[in-house]
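Hi U.,

Before I forget, here's the chain from the pilot set. I'm dumping it here mostly so it's searchable later in email.
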Amino acid sequence: MTQPHDEATASPAPTPKELRERVEHTRQELGQTAEPPADKTDVRARAQDKAAEVKEQATVKAGELKAKAAQTASRVQDKLPEPVKDKAAQAAGQVRTKAAQAGQLIQDKAPEPVRAQAAQGAQLARDNRTLLLAAAGAGVALWLLRRNRG
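Structure:
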């Protein structure tokens, strides 16, 4: 069952240098084995990585949606007849006038925190003016088309 110990087949005793190499190799293997669990326990770093990844994805998606909206608005405007475009331009002018009047009224009557929020919203609207105008134009055009058909 057990094999007798044969001096001829037994490997010679390892030298101190070989033992040090084996120990170093084993340390490296243990270090590599311990790294993944250690990385998993660093919750803060993982959360920061995930937040950066999500932010990048959101930025890309927002750019795609903005381009798609501009493309759609352009297609809708190209298909509209001239009378509808004229009415949409008139409506947009009226909306701008009313918005300016409302803005002045709010500025006169609103408390400071509300004015600050309104200024911030107005700046955001100015920064995205093309997209907002395209969406508003498409909305007015669709409303006019539905109204004329109905």
